[in-house]
């Protein structure tokens, strides 16, 4: 079991280090946004994965290291285990390679015009993670079976744990709670449904030269696709009202304010998406079919 604990502990270490580094980079992007990076907000899907990685892997790593310490305390055979030492050396090499690769990527970004302050913060993050891992495992290689876990080592573990907890907490604040994410996903689905309905109405008008009287007319029309005409959460049908010969209204009830999401991510919104911005609650969109240019 000792060798199994050792193997899994290193896997947990890799996951924790990569997740921590990715999350740190996300915080830097948030604090010092690059106005040229339009896709930055999409990175927060990876941010949530990094938070999940820390929540799962870091406690597991601490737990396994505690077990490994007990197994090696007073047991020179386990302490000098070839498996343990080989994995330690491999870890040092792997971490060095990963950090070197990340550093090369950061320098490449600077050469491509990235902000200097972001470069310094990202480089500092890389060296901090590498320094902690190298420092601990180099010290661990020199440890003797009779050595105790020193107060200094305990303080370092506590400091790292506090940093990880802060990162997890702040990451959740930025990405939103699970409930907020669920509400956002429902609203994204509602917006997508309304866009599909609007496209189907445009196609119907081009073929029939009139607006449909209801959703049933759209369903009977060929070459149109509508995923749903019902709210994904309440299953209530969306509202559709004909206002004039070429104008109509689509209504839905939203759970979030789209402007808050845009301000939170600081990501520019394409013009086509701005046409579907919405407040929280019942919102109606007035649209007009457009004749084909010939």
UniProtKB/TrEMBL annotation:
Source species, domain of life? Bacteria
Q: Which residues form a coiled coil?
A: none
Decide whether keyword tRNA processing is in the record: no
Domain DUF5671 stretches: 5-136
Pfam (any one): DUF5671
Give the residue spans that cross the bilayer: 43-65, 86-107, 119-139, 151-173
Keyword annotations for this protein, in alphabetical order, are: Membrane, Transmembrane, Transmembrane helix
Quote the protein name from its UniProt record.
DUF5671 domain-containing protein
Its source organism is: Candidatus Wildermuthbacteria bacterium RIFCSPLOWO2_02_FULL_47_9c
């Amino acid at each position: 079991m000792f060798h199994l604990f050792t193997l899994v502990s290193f896997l947990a270490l890799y996951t924790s280090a990569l997740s921590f580094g990715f999350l740190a980079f996300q915080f830097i992007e948030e604090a010092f946004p690059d106005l040229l990076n339009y896709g930055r907000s999409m990175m927060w899907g990876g941010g949530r994965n990094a938070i999940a990685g820390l929540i799962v892997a870091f406690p597991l790593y601490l737990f396994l290291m505690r077990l490994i310490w007990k197994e090696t305390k007073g047991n020179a055979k386990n302490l000098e285990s070839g498996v343990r030492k080989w994995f330690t050396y491999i870890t040092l090499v792997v971490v060095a390679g990963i950090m070197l690769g990340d550093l090369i990527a950061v320098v490449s970004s600077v050469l491509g015009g990235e902000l200097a302050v972001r470069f310094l913060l990202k480089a500092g993050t890389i060296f901090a993670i590498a320094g902690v891992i190298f420092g601990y495992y180099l010290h661990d290689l020199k440890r003797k079976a009779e050595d105790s876990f020193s107060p200094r080592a305990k303080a370092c573990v506590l400091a790292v744990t506090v940093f990880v907890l802060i990162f997890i907490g702040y990451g959740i604040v930025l990405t939103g709670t699970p409930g907020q994410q669920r509400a956002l996903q429902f609203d994204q689905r509602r917006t997508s449904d309304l866009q599909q309905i609007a496209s189907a109405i445009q196609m119907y008008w081009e073929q029939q030269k009139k607006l449909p009287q209801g959703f049933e007319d759209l369903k009977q029309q060929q070459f149109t696709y509508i995923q749903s005409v019902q709210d994904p959460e309440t299953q209530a049908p969306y509202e559709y009202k004909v206002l004039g010969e070429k104008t109509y209204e689509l209504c839905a009830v939203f759970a979030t304010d789209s402007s808050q999401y845009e301000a939170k991510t600081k990501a520019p919104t394409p013009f086509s998406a701005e046409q579907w911005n919405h407040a929280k609650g019942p919102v109606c969109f007035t649209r007009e079919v457009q004749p084909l240019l010939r």
